[in-house]
Amino acid sequence: MSTTRATPAAAPPTGSGGRSAGPGDPDPHRWRNRLYRFDLRYTPYLLVAPFFLLFLVFGVFPIIFNGVVALRHWRLDDATLTGWAGLANFEKLLTDDDFWNALYNTFGIFLLSTVPQLTLALVIASVLNRRLRAQTWWRVGVLLPYVTPITASTLVFAAVFARDTGVANWVLSVLHIGGAEPIDWRSAKWSSWLVLATMVNWKWIGYNALLYLAAMQSIPKDIYEAAAVDGAGVWRQLWRITVPMIRPVVIFTVVLSTIGGLQLFTEPMLLEQNAQAARGGANGEWQTIAQLIYKVGWKDLNLGYAAAMSWALFLIIVVVAAVNALITNRLGGGKR
Amino acid sequence: MSTTVVKRRGGRRRAALTGRAPADTPASIWNYLFLALVFVFSAFPLYWMLVIATSTDAALAKLPPQVVPGDQLLTNLREVFSLQDVYFIQSLANSAIVSSVVTLSVLFFCSLAGFAFAKLRFRGRNVLMVIVILTLTVPNQLGVVALYIVMGEIGWNGTLLAVIVPGLVSAFGVFYMRQFILEAVPDELVEAARIDGATTMRIYASVVLPAVRPALAVLGLLTFVGTWNDFQWPLITLNGTDYPTSMVAISDLASGNYVLYRRVLAGALVATIPLLIMLFIGGRQIVRGIMEGAVKS
């Protein structure tokens, strides 16, 4: 750009002062001025437009449309079976044993994973918060699970928890834990939930630890010094100072793991020998709701019913996340 | 400062009495042991993937299990890549295409929008930003049934477009770029550029972009990893086609009544390596990025 023409742009955007700068040749300046005002006023919208357009079409619309689909008959195998179903899909939901079983499984696995996950993350974060050698390497190390594809890690865990050749059973037998028979991890609810919770915990502990660590580093140091003078030990400091001080991040992670935990999909899918059947065990021992939605929609080809389920799941997530946030908030507040 | 206290005679006791913040306390041997344990736990599945991927069926059936990698990696890989109905090479290429396009697009559009939200004045800015933040908490996954129908209407189901286009922008990206630009780009710099006659796009290109390179690196890494690892939506829209992503291909490998783990995990290992390389190169940035995202929440 030439440097001699800097003056017109300096004119106030609403005034017409730019025109007087070139009386002999007013047109280019007026044009420039108009362009400048247009740029100032409308370019911001152009910049944010791609996000909102794409989000509207592929984010908001599907969720609303999902509501419409949930109220219709919509089958993939029989296009003639359309039309309003009213609340039939939702009524079916209420008496569907598969749905309640999946809901039960989802909550069980969710509880088994969230609580140890966040507690351990807190402990790891507080250790990472010490003065450490090779600090960065420890932090990168805890992120190994985060970058590993869930499909890959799930299959490894599936092999580890195999009944006859799995390492888990071998370790248990060496330690003389459990009975003489190897545990068939996939045959009971408790064992399959434990396996899935292990996978989820493995994946997210490090990530949560880093979130906590970030928050811990902004706690003023003199608070700890004062607490130590008052005789508070390491654990007391952790629960009485650190946790309350990082409460916003704790709430954030609780909400985040609620949203993630209730939508658990990849792990239960691939724990199964025949992954794409989406049964979640021979008798649905560990079938989660997200998995059931996939089965109903794309195996049973009943999209309308699947849409109703995902709406129900959505409402459940909202309620649980809100309740969790509220409880966490209270707990933290009580400790102040 | 506690350091001066420590140097005195009997300093250790004094230090214990006055106390030090955890961040000033040197880690004890127990802390290191604990972290080492955590590291072993984190790395174990990766290591075990390597063990299984390099072994024979006979070696895997043995008890006690073998704990060192075998020498059958090439054999297993050859089997994976030559499988007829899984298209493994194609799937790796597809994953690379999808992840690269999505990452570049997220970086471009989110930095544009983040710039607008951070530094430009326009009507409705605050309302729109609140919408972005609310979006962060809405799981898009819950619209999959309808999204599948929409994609069917457009005719994109079974094509890479169905996976790419919904990922082109991300609310997290907009939020993240806005936070970074707010701090990294001084208002004065933007105003000075304006006075010099720069257009908004010119300011974006010459002032904002150079200043946000670190944030772009972080967002790029996170987006690439996330997109590469995505499973549910690609499975729904690409399953059964000749164009799966590598994650769908792996689940294809693991489907059937008789799963050969050595083969599946040889494939999984290949699909994991790009991400490990990214963690190795950009680990510091990824860590910083995640931590920066947290403080502001």
Automatic annotation (TrEMBL), chain A:
InterPro entries documented for this protein: ABC_transporter_permease (IPR051393), MetI-like (IPR000515), MetI-like_sf (IPR035906)
Composition-biased stretches (Low complexity): 1-14
Keyword ATP-binding: no
CDD domains, per the entry: TM_PBP2
Subcellular location: Cell membrane
Predominant cellular place of this UniProt entry's protein: membrane
BP term (GO), one: transmembrane transport
Domain ABC transmembrane type-1: residue ranges: 103-324
Ranges where the record places region Disordered: 1-27
A GO CC term assigned to this protein in UniProt: plasma membrane
Membrane topology: Multi-pass membrane protein
Residue ranges of the TM segments: 42-65, 102-128, 140-162, 193-215, 245-265, 303-327
Keywords, comma-separated and alphabetical: Cell membrane, Membrane, Transmembrane, Transmembrane helix, Transport
Family label: Belongs to the binding-protein-dependent transport system permease family.
Identification of the protein by name: Cellobiose transport system permease protein
Automatic annotation (TrEMBL), chain B:
Organism of derivation: Micromonospora pisi
Chief localization: membrane
Superkingdom: Bacteria
Entry's transmembrane regions: 29-50, 92-115, 127-150, 156-176, 203-225, 260-281
Protein family (similarity comment): Belongs to the binding-protein-dependent transport system permease family.
Family matches, as InterPro entries: MetI-like (IPR000515), MetI-like_sf (IPR035906)
One CC-aspect GO term: plasma membrane
Protein name, per record: Cellobiose transport system permease protein
Entry membrane topology: Multi-pass membrane protein
Keyword annotations from UniProtKB, A to Z: Cell membrane, Membrane, Transmembrane, Transmembrane helix, Transport
Domain ABC transmembrane type-1: 92-282
Subcellular location: Cell membrane
Pfam family, one: BPD_transp_1
Entry's Gene Ontology BP terms: transmembrane transport
